[in-house]
Specification:
heterodimer, A: about 120 residues, seven-stranded mixed β-sheet, four-stranded antiparallel β-sheet, about 0% helix, B: mainly beta, six-stranded mixed β-sheet
Chain lengths: ~120, ~110
């Protein structure tokens, strides 16, 4: 069964460093998302991406964040200068896009630890 | 309350018992989805119920949706120890980004053998 994959599973970085989190959405899906979950808290929407551009972003998604779909398969989230409060699980998700009632499939997540 | 608030926050039951979790939301929605998350792991999609549906079944799962009360419930029948996880409802709101989901804080379910 097709699934969303994410790499790495765990990333440890120093404050101020840049990190790139990678995702491979399900191949025929059209809409892509990043969410994050700070430990013990709810899952929060960051950004959605369609047709090679951002379609919506939350207040969390400030200038330190960027997304890219560099080729036909990968979808990346870059954090330019990480802060301690960026430590969280980051989930990528994708939707087929054929209807507003399609299921959203999530990857296993990348645990980002900022020291 | 915030969009997608689940209750109870924690639920502890014995194997074989049924578990019911509730979710309330505030704005109009296109659909509501339930997810399971094992500790520290990814989100597993369980079931989607559309705004024009009232009840949906999938295996041991039964989901109801009451749009007049802006609430949903997830029932797990004949629970097993393997059902131990956190359960989240997530709403896809009307007039929001395409299928952007808003999650609740979750219900932590513990099923004891």
């Amino acid at each position: 069964e097709p699934e969303v994959t994410q790499t790495p599973s765990h990333q440890v970085t120093q404050m101020g460093q840049e990190v790139i989190l990678r995702c491979v959405p399900i191949s025929n899906h059209l809409y892509f998302y990043w969410y994050r979950q700070i430990l013990g808290q709810k899952v929060e929407f960051l950004v959605s991406f369609y047709n090679n551009e951002i379609s919506e972003k939350s207040e969390i998604f400030d200038d330190q964040f960027s997304v890219e779909r560099p080729d036909g398969s990968n979808f990346t989230l870059k954090i330019r200068s990480t802060k301690l409060e960026d430590s969280a699980m980051y989930f990528c998700a994708s939707v087929a896009g054929t209807s507003e009632n399609n299921e959203q499939f999530f990857g296993p997540g990348t645990r980002l630890t900022v020291l | 309350s915030q969009q997608g608030e689940e209750d109870p926050q924690a639920l502890s039951i014995q194997e074989g018992e049924n578990a019911t979790m509730n979710c309330s939301y505030k704005t109009s929605i296109n659909n509501l989805q339930w997810y399971r998350q094992n500790s520290g792991r990814g989100l597993v999609h369980l079931i989607l119920i559309r705004s024009n549906e009232r009840e949906k079944h999938s295996g041991r799962l039964r989901v109801t949706l009451d749009t007049s009360k802006k609430s949903s419930s997830l029932l797990i029948t004949a629970s097993r120890a393997a059902d131990t996880a956190s359960y989240f409802c997530a709403t896809a709101q009307m007039n929001s980004g395409y299928s952007t989901l808003t999650f609740g804080k979750g219900t932590m379910l513990l099923v004891s053998p």
